[in-house]
């Protein structure tokens, strides 16, 4: 089962490389779902010595005050016997350290790069992997030591800042807590036990480690604590004996220190009966075994999270679109395909599959009839205007039977006002077609990917609609002009003439223009104009639909496609230039997706082998 911890280490390193450790997100990430062990303790509690004993190497910075100023994620990988030990930092991926004094210096230097040469702290972790035959597979997170007071050069908030940082790790349900407490201090004041109890009141995740047992006052011992009598935890306390400062100064070998630790517990009467579960070696093996157990129990939840995240990543990548083709043919095909999708959406709006096309019918069914009704023919056909136009049309000789030229002028002056509603119908439909272009662009996800192409397609579509509008306006106004240029003769042939009514054509000119006579002319003209309005109410929509709507469906981007074939690759590339943020986002998502798929395969393989 050692491979299981190695697998988790591998996934954690990959998560960290991609920034997928959930520090800035409220959503659970793969990093959060993977079990780890956080090492918690007060300053000078012996945390660093415990870690070095587990690793078997001197590699951590030492000194007074706050030495650990950034979290250190330490991943241990067991090698075969005889293999050479080495270490790697995630921020220096191609460099192997075989000199562990250089490892210590790099930890210090990397801390200073983030915090400066001050006593400030940072929550940005350092990731270190150590490969050795003398370790067990394990992941440990060394956190800054808890403190009760700020020292010179530190802000007053340092106490709370460190506590908040520690809590951010140990509050996670998948985090095991290694609580380090010195035996030569009152356990009731232990910072590690206090904060562990707050986040893990049942003790399900807390392991107590007692350091500096050999430094207790004469006549005192820690047997009651180690036996669980003084302070009981769910898991047995483990005592360790670290190297003294004199040993460190003399560069006492860690292997020799482990041997001396075993001898101390085996030969000390107070601890002899507990020696089988004391010491750094037992601590490392016990934590490794427990970590394996926890990982196994979390596999179903990890699999569920991985599967859910893969689905979300695939969905977002689909929304962002595919990467751009490299060759000119591929770029041209991409542009044509995107335009085809836009054109299809536009047609769906016009055909009623999507909303919007119904507004065009509203122009014909409501706006045009209302505009025709608002035409003030009564002003054109007032007594004064009829008398004026009839008189002017007669010229020097009054009409003999019917004032034909007067009729024509009255009809033409009335019909010409219909040009306004006809032109307004063309403009109204043009406005709707333009709105649908903008709406269709916003509904074409692929166009969101390429701002330059989006603008070019929008401009090309609007230019096409403008040309169609001009053609439609000419055709529609011609309908009105045709009605003005040639009157329907049958309408007038059916009208009774003056002589048929017993009229006398020799009446005086004054009698010819009496109100009754003029009123009858006005009525006749109004009837004819209304007949023409009824006809145009049906023919204007046909002209508009034929010249604008039908053409928009048939050839909205035809001119753009013609020009597209003449474009150079450089210009095609500029059309497919993406927002750099989108490109960066797609690349990051693709890497995360690759990570999660790899993790899915590895975790599934482990699950099936259980």
From TrEMBL:
Lipid biosynthesis listed as a keyword: no
UniProt keywords, alphabetically: Cell cycle, Cell division, Cytoplasm, Cytoskeleton, GTP-binding, Hydrolase, Microtubule, Motor protein, Nucleotide-binding
GO cellular component annotations of the record: microtubule; phragmoplast; plasma membrane
Domain called Dynamin-type G: residue spans: 31-300
Compartments it resides in: Cytoplasm, Cytoskeleton, Phragmoplast
The organism's place on the tree of life at top rank: Eukaryota
Keyword Zinc attached: no
Gene3D superfamilies: Dynamin, middle domain, P-loop containing nucleotide triphosphate hydrolases
PANTHER family: DYNAMIN, PHRAGMOPLASTIN DRP1A
Protein name, UniProt field: Dynamin-related protein 5A
Species this protein is from: Erythroxylum novogranatense
């Amino acid at each position: 089962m050692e491979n299981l911890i190695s697998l988790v280490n591998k996934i954690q390193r990959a998560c960290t490389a991609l920034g997928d450790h959930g520090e800035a997100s409220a959503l659970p990430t793969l990093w959060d779902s993977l079990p780890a062990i956080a090492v918690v303790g007060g300053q000078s509690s012996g945390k660093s010595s415990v870690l070095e004993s587990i690793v078997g190497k001197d590699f951590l910075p030492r000194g007074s005050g706050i030495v650990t100023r950034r979290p250190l994620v330490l991943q241990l990988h067991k090698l075969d016997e005889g293999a050479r030990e080495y270490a790697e930092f995630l921020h220096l991926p191609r460099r192997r350290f075989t000199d562990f004094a250089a490892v210590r210096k790099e930890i210090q230097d990397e801390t200073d790069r983030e915090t400066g040469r001050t006593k400030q702290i940072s929550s940005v972790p350092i990731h270190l992997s150590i490969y050795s035959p003398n370790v067990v597979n394990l992941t440990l997170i060394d956190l800054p030591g808890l403190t009760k007071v700020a020292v010179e050069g530190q802000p007053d908030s340092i106490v709370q800042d460190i506590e908040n940082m520690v809590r951010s790790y140990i509050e996670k349900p998948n985090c095991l807590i290694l609580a380090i407490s010195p035996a030569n201090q009152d356990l009731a004041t232990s910072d590690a036990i206090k904060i562990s109890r707050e986040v893990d009141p049942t003790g399900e995740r807390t392991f107590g480690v007692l350091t500096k047992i050999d430094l207790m006052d004469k006549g005192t011992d820690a047997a009651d604590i180690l036996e669980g009598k003084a302070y009981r935890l769910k898991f047995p306390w483990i005592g360790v004996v670290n190297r003294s400062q004199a040993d460190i100064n003399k560069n006492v070998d860690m292997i020799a220190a482990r041997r001396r630790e075993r001898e101390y517990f085996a030969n000390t009467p107070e601890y002899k009966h507990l020696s089988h579960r004391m010491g750094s070696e037992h601590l490392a093996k016990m934590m490794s075994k427990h970590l394996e157990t926890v990982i196994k129990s979390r596999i179903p939840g990890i699999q569920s999270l991985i599967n859910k995240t893969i689905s979300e990543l695939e969905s977002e990548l689909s929304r962002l679109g595919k990467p751009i083709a490299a060759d000119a043919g591929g770029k041209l095909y991409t542009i044509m395909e995107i335009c085809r999708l836009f054109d299809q959406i536009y047609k769906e709006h016009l055909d009623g599959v999507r909303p919007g096309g119904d507004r065009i019918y509203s122009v014909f069914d409501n706006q045009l009839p209302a505009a025709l009704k608002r035409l003030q023919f009564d002003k054109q056909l007032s007594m004064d205007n009829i008398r004026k136009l009839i008189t002017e049309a007669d010229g020097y000789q009054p009409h003999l039977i019917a004032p034909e030229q007067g009729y024509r002028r009255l009809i033409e002056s009335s019909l010409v006002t219909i040009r306004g509603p006809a032109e307004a119908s063309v403009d109204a439909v043009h406005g709707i077609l333009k709105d649908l272009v903008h709406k269709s662009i916003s509904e074409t996800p692929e166009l969101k990917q390429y701002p330059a192409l989006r603008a070019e397609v929008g401009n090309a579509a609007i230019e096409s609609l403008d040309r169609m509008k001009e053609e439609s306006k000419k055709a529609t106004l011609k309908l009105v002009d045709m009605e003005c240029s040639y009157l329907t003769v049958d309408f007038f042939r059916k009208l009774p003439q003056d002589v048929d009514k017993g009229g006398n054509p020799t009446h005086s000119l004054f009698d010819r223009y009496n109100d009754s006579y003029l009123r009858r002319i006005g009525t006749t003209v109004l009837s004819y104009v209304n007949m023409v309005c009824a006809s145009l109410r049906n023919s204007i929509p046909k002209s508009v639909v034929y010249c604008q709507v039908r053409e928009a469906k048939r050839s909205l981007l035809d001119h753009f496609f013609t020009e597209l074939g003449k474009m150079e690759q450089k210009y095609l590339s500029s059309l497919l230039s993406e927002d750099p943020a989108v490109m960066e986002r797609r690349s990051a998502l693709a890497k995360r997706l690759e990570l999660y798929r790899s993790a899915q395969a590895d975790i599934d393989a482990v699950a099936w082998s259980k």
